[in-house]
Amino acid sequence: xxxxxxxxxxxxxxEGQNVTLSCEQNLNHDAMYWYRQDPGQxxxxxxxxxxxxxxxxxxxxxxxxxxxxxxxxxxxTVTSAQKNPTAFYLCASSPGRSIRGGYTFGSGTRLTxx
Amino acid sequence: SQQGEEDPQALSxxxxxxxxxxxxxxxxxxxxxxxxxxxxxxxxxxxxxxSNEREKHSGRLRVTLDTSKKSSSLLITxxxxxxxxxxxxxxxxxxDMRFGAGTRLTxxP
Lengths: 114, 109
What we know:
- The structure holds two protein chains of two kinds.
- Chain A is mainly β.
- Chain A has strands at 4-7, 10-13, 19-25, 31-37, 43-51, 54-57, 64-66, 76-78, 87-94, 104-105, 109-113.
- Chain A is 0% helix and 49% strand.
- In chain A, 36% of the residues are buried.
- Chain B has strands at 5-7, 10-14, 19-24, 31-37, 43-50, 55-58, 61-66, 71-76, 85-92, 97-99, 103-108.
- In chain B, strands 2, 4, 5, 9, 10 and 11 form a six-stranded mixed sheet that branches. A five-stranded antiparallel sheet of chain B has the order 1-3-8-7-6, with no helix packed on it.
- By secondary structure, chain B is an all-beta fold.
C-alpha cells in the first residue's frame, strides 16, 4: 500500500542534542512538507520541498534543517538551536504544488525534550 | 500564520445527531479542504471544495463554501462515536496549505 512512513513514533531529546526525524513516501509525490503541531493549535509549516535537491523555509524554520537527496525521503533535523522543540511533528506529501489536491500525512513523531 | 479559523473550538453531541463546524478565512483561495485527525495521529483528507463550488457531498459529509463571506461549513450527519476526532479546515496559499486550530468533536454513544 502507498503511504508515508514517519519514524520513530516517539523521540526523546536531551538538551543541546540534535535529532533527526525520518519521513519516507512511496506515493511518487514530488512535493513534501514538514509541519509542527502544538497542543490546541493548528499546523505550522517548517520546511517544504517541491523537487529533489530543492527545499524552502516555511514560517518557523529557525532551529530546523532538512535535506531532499531522494524523491522518497525528506528527513528533518531538530538542532540544538531550536529552543522549544517539544511538539508533534507531521510529514506530508502531495503530487506537486501545482496540483491542488489533498495532502497525504504520516502518523507523526512526538518529540519530547528531557 | 493561520488562515482558517474553526468554530466552535469544541463540540459535544450524542450519537445520531448532526455536527456542524465552521471555518472562516481571510484571503482569496483556490480551494478549501477539510481534514480529520484522531488523537495522536496524522491528518486524513476528507473533502476538497473549489472556489467556484458552493456545496459538495461525500457520504455523510456535506461541505458548503461562501466566498463572499469567506467561510465554509462541514456538516456530519447521523454522527457516530467513531467520528470523535479533531477537524481542520485548510486553505491553499501560494506555497502551502494553511491550517486552522481545529474543532474537537466528541460524539457520545
